[in-house]
């Protein structure tokens, strides 16, 4: 048995612990079974945003006649070249991550699949390692639904879709959440005829007004088949036939050269040998954790997607920094406070949100007012000739706290940050009102939504 102070399984968010802890003098083993950097770098956030940015530009070019520009309105993305650039970039970064670890005197980087052989012992590549503290940061993988005929066909998940160099003429997307909408947007902007099978709603967890505006704009560029379930998939060597059925029993068959499955994720905890430990799992295979992200076994922590708390790179980063602080840098019994966790869906239109949706406030019986401003009613929105987009803020009636904010339209993910910052400082509507906004920058839409909320409060 080889002894370490710390073992980390997974080099995505796990990297937030490895080097900082080793720099403090702890002896660290970092185990990774695939490319360094995890999902975000290799097949998630980074490559997806690198293909979505050109897709967004296509939309801006297509809208340029509104602002009196004569441009080629059928711009073409050099798809193969773009994918090769993106793949080359992320592969280079990933390859660059290992050497500094290998050079570090207190880190042993091990490429291999880790399994638990006991509560504090790990088997990898025929070696047995032990540590007082083990961090499980194994992430998730795509969940593949049990649809007759699907298995064995060359369907894509995000992993393949972000490395595929041939732009298909047609693509069917099963699942209309984050991944389906983001990658569907990238492909449809590049010229693919994209059809979505939407079982319930597009981006179903968003605020209701955001969903309505999103559907209006998104359906201009993508075909939606709403209220349908997939019954059967067939593949004849070049074309997928997907049979779908709605709740009234009506059947349709869709055909396309490509099929993207984006129906959610499952945690990578099933091949971890957890049966050899006292680590408990929930019904979905996630590892429940306490306020210090500790599993049911003391000294064994679960961070990132696999603990089921949040599924973002920014949240696993936050967890890693928290763990470093409370376990190693300044030990304490502080419990994790995520605060107001923001999110964004990088599509056209772009969506960003933080805090509660209006439906959640109604369910909570909250007393609130809604401040609202459409982009087109601001000076910068007018300059851009915005034909969609708004800012919606939800304010507690009694103490004017910011309960939620939801933005759709250009720069939504950037615009949201001023509200995120205020929510972390327990800011109120007055804070949103009592500052000078650059005229005529887009955040004036946030100010005008705040003024609308102020006016609602006066009426009441
Ligand atoms: C297409 C896509 C786009 C996304 N876009 C965004 C975005 O824009 N913003 C955002 O915040 N989030 C985004 N996400 C989500 C984000 O990628 C994840 O939330 C984040 O990567 C989770 O980090 P993690 O460290 O928990 O897991 P991962 O990054 O998945 O890392 C887990 C690592 O553990 C390794 N591993 C697993 N089991 C073992 C084992 N037994 N032994 C050794 N190694 C093992 C895996 O190989 C992997 O490298 C996106 C995800 C996808 C799929
Ligand atoms: N911008 C970002 O931050 C970003 C981008 C991509 C992914 N992510 C993360 O990755 C996670 C996974 O994304 P995702 O899009 O796979 O999951 P998701 O939960 O966002 O969406 C899954 C969708 O698939 C549908 N679905 C499930 N089973 C189905 C079936 N059998 N037939 C038809 N539809 C079905 C669901 O109704 C839902 O709309 C997200 O939770 C998110 O946190 C984040």
TrEMBL record:
<keyword id="KW-1015">Disulfide bond</keyword>
<keyword id="KW-0560">Oxidoreductase</keyword>
<keyword id="KW-0274">FAD</keyword>
<comment type="similarity">
    <text>Belongs to the class-I pyridine nucleotide-disulfide oxidoreductase family.</text>
</comment>
<keyword id="KW-0676">Redox-active center</keyword>
<protein>
    <submittedName>
        <fullName>Dihydrolipoyl dehydrogenase</fullName>
    </submittedName>
</protein>
<dbReference type="InterPro" id="IPR016156">
    <property type="entry name" value="FAD/NAD-linked_Rdtase_dimer_sf"/>
</dbReference>
<feature type="domain" description="Pyridine nucleotide-disulphide oxidoreductase dimerisation">
    <location>
        <begin position="341"/>
        <end position="449"/>
    </location>
</feature>
<dbReference type="InterPro" id="IPR004099">
    <property type="entry name" value="Pyr_nucl-diS_OxRdtase_dimer"/>
</dbReference>
<dbReference type="Pfam" id="PF07992">
    <property type="entry name" value="Pyr_redox_2"/>
</dbReference>
<dbReference type="InterPro" id="IPR001100">
    <property type="entry name" value="Pyr_nuc-diS_OxRdtase"/>
</dbReference>
<dbReference type="InterPro" id="IPR023753">
    <property type="entry name" value="FAD/NAD-binding_dom"/>
</dbReference>
<feature type="domain" description="FAD/NAD(P)-binding">
    <location>
        <begin position="4"/>
        <end position="308"/>
    </location>
</feature>
<keyword id="KW-0521">NADP</keyword>
<dbReference type="InterPro" id="IPR036188">
    <property type="entry name" value="FAD/NAD-bd_sf"/>
</dbReference>
<keyword id="KW-0285">Flavoprotein</keyword>
<dbReference type="Pfam" id="PF02852">
    <property type="entry name" value="Pyr_redox_dim"/>
</dbReference>
<dbReference type="InterPro" id="IPR012999">
    <property type="entry name" value="Pyr_OxRdtase_I_AS"/>
</dbReference>
């Amino acid at each position: 048995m080889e002894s370490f102070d710390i073992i980390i399984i997974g080099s995505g968010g796990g990297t937030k612990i490895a080097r900082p802890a080793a720099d403090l003098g702890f002896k660290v083993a970092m185990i990774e079974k695939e490319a360094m950097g995890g999902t975000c770098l290799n097949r998630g956030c980074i490559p997806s945003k690198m293909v979505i940015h050109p897709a967004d530009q296509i939309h801006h070019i297509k809208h340029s006649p509104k602002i009196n520009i004569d441009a080629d309105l059928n711009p073409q993305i050099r798809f193969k070249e773009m994918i090769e650039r993106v793949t080359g970039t992320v592969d280079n970064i990933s390859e660059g991550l290992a050497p500094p670890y290998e050079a570090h005197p207190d880190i042993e980087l091990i490429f291999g699949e880790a399994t638990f052989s006991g509560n504090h012992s790990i088997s990898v590549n025929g070696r047995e390692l032990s540590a007082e503290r083990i961090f499980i940061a194994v992430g998730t993988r795509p969940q593949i639904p049990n649809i007759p005929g699907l298995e064995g066909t060359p369907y894509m998940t995000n992993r393949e879709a972000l490395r595929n160099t041939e732009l298909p003429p047609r693509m069917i997307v099963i699942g209309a959440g984050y991944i389906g909408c983001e990658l569907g947007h990238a492909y449809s902007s590049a010229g693919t005829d994209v059809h979505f099978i939407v079982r319930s709603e597009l981006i179903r967890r968003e605020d209701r007004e955001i969903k309505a505006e999103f559907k209006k704009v998104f359906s201009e560029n993508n075909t939606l088949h709403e209220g349908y379930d997939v019954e059967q998939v067939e593949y004849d060597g070049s074309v997928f036939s997907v049979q779908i059925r709605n709740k009234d029993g009506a059947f349709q068959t869709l055909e396309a050269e490509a099929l993207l499955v984006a129906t959610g994720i499952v945690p990578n905890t099933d091949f971890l040998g957890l049966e050899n430990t006292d680590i408990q799992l929930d019904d979905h295979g996630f590892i429940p954790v306490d306020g210090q992200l500790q599993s049911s076994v003391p000294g064994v922590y679960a961070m990132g997607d696999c603990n089921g708390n949040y599924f973002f790179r920014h949240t696993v980063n936050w967890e890693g920094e928290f763990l470093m602080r409370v376990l190693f840098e300044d030990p304490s019994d502080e419990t994790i406070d995520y605060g107001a966790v923001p999110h964004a869906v990088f599509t056209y239109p772009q969506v960003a949100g933080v805090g509660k949706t209006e439906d959640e406030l109604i369910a909570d019986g909250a007393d609130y007012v809604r401040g609202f401003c459409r982009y087109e009613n601001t000076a910068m929105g007018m300059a851009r000739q915005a034909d969609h987009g708004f800012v919606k803020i939800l304010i507690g009636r009694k103490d004017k706290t910011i309960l939620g904010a939801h933005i759709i339209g250009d720069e939504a993910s950037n615009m949201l940050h001023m509200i995120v910052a205020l929510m972390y400082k327990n800011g109120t509507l007055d804070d949103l009102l009592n500052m000078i906004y650059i005229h005529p920058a887009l955040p004036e839409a946030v100010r005008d939504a705040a003024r609308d909320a102020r006016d609602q409060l006066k009426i009441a």
